[in-house]
Amino acid sequence: MDRFIAACVQVNARDDMNDNLARAATYARDAHAAGATLIAFPENVSMISFGGEKVRTAAYDEAAHPALTFFCDLAVELKSTLIVGSLHVTVPGEDRVANRCFVIGPDGKVITSYDKIHMFDVDLAGGESYRESKTFRPGDQARLAKTDVGDIGIAICYDVRFPQLFRDYAKAGAKILSIPAAFTRTTGQAHWHNLLRSRAIENGCFVIAAAQCGEHPGDRKTFGHSLIIDPWGEVLADGGTDPGFITAEIDLGRVEEIRRMVPSLHNDRAYKPC
Question: Which terminus of the chain has fewer Cβ atoms in its 10 Å neighbourhood, N or C?
Answer without folding.
Answer: C
